[in-house]
C-alpha cells in the first residue's frame, strides 16, 4: 500500500505553475506532430510509431540532482516517472488537439494547452496568453465544511 501517491489522485489538488523556460526538459520534442503533421527528415523516425521519449533518464537524473545531489532513484521509480511524464504530455496534447478541433481551426494554439492545464490540472503557464489579470478563484465551501467549522467554533467556546 503506497500512501505517498495519494497526492497524485486528484489533478486539481495541487496548484502548480509550469515554467515558461525549458528547465524541465519535458517540453522538447516534435511539437509539429501535435497539429496532425509529422515531419521526419530521413524517413526513419521513431516519432511515427509513438516511441519518442520526451524526458530521458539522464535528464531525469539531472533534475533529481538539482533537487538533492545525494538522492538516487531506483530503476523502477525512474521508469514510472518517465511513463507518467510521457502520459501527461500525450494526454495534454490530445486534449489541446480536441479543443482546437472544437474551435474548428487546423492548428493547436497556446490557449488550447492553457485551457486544458487550467481546467484539469489547475496549472498555468506564466508569460503566455492574455494580459488580463487573473482573478483569484476562491474555493467553494461545502455544507459539510460549514458544519465542521461550526462544531470547531462550538468546541472552542466551551473552553
TrEMBL record:
<feature type="region of interest" description="Disordered">
    <location>
        <begin position="1"/>
        <end position="61"/>
    </location>
</feature>
<dbReference type="GO" id="GO:0000124">
    <property type="term" value="C:SAGA complex"/>
</dbReference>
<keyword id="KW-0648">Protein biosynthesis</keyword>
<dbReference type="GO" id="GO:0003743">
    <property type="term" value="F:translation initiation factor activity"/>
</dbReference>
<dbReference type="GO" id="GO:0046982">
    <property type="term" value="F:protein heterodimerization activity"/>
</dbReference>
<dbReference type="Pfam" id="PF03847">
    <property type="entry name" value="TFIID_20kDa"/>
</dbReference>
<dbReference type="GO" id="GO:0003677">
    <property type="term" value="F:DNA binding"/>
</dbReference>
<dbReference type="GO" id="GO:0017025">
    <property type="term" value="F:TBP-class protein binding"/>
</dbReference>
<feature type="domain" description="Transcription initiation factor TFIID subunit 12">
    <location>
        <begin position="56"/>
        <end position="123"/>
    </location>
</feature>
<dbReference type="InterPro" id="IPR037794">
    <property type="entry name" value="TAF12"/>
</dbReference>
<comment type="similarity">
    <text>Belongs to the TAF12 family.</text>
</comment>
<dbReference type="GO" id="GO:0051123">
    <property type="term" value="P:RNA polymerase II preinitiation complex assembly"/>
</dbReference>
<feature type="compositionally biased region" description="Low complexity">
    <location>
        <begin position="31"/>
        <end position="52"/>
    </location>
</feature>
<feature type="compositionally biased region" description="Polar residues">
    <location>
        <begin position="1"/>
        <end position="30"/>
    </location>
</feature>
<keyword id="KW-0539">Nucleus</keyword>
<dbReference type="GO" id="GO:0005669">
    <property type="term" value="C:transcription factor TFIID complex"/>
</dbReference>
<keyword id="KW-0396">Initiation factor</keyword>
<keyword id="KW-0804">Transcription</keyword>
<dbReference type="InterPro" id="IPR003228">
    <property type="entry name" value="TFIID_TAF12_dom"/>
</dbReference>
<keyword id="KW-0805">Transcription regulation</keyword>
<dbReference type="InterPro" id="IPR009072">
    <property type="entry name" value="Histone-fold"/>
</dbReference>
<protein>
    <recommendedName>
        <fullName>Transcription initiation factor TFIID subunit 12</fullName>
    </recommendedName>
</protein>
Amino acid at each position: 500500500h503506497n500512501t505517498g501517491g495519494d497526492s497524485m489522485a486528484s489533478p486539481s489538488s495541487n496548484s502548480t505553475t509550469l515554467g515558461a523556460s525549458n528547465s524541465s526538459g519535458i517540453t522538447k520534442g516534435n511539437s509539429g506532430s501535435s497539429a496532425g503533421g509529422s515531419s521526419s527528415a530521413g524517413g526513419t523516425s521513431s516519432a511515427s510509431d509513438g516511441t519518442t521519449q520526451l524526458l530521458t533518464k539522464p535528464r531525469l537524473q539531472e533534475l533529481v540532482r538539482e533537487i538533492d545531489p545525494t538522492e538516487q532513484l531506483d530503476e523502477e521509480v525512474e521508469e514510472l516517472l518517465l511513463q507518467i511524464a510521457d502520459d501527461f504530455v500525450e494526454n495534454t496534447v490530445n486534449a489541446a488537439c480536441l479543443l482546437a478541433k472544437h474551435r474548428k481551426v487546423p492548428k493547436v494554439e497556446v490557449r488550447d494547452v492553457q485551457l486544458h492545464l487550467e481546467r484539469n490540472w489547475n496549472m498555468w503557464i506564466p508569460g503566455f496568453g492574455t494580459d488580463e489579470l487573473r482573478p483569484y478563484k476562491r474555493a467553494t465551501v461545502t455544507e459539510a465544511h460549514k458544519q465542521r467549522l461550526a462544531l470547531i467554533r462550538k468546541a472552542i467556546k466551551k473552553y
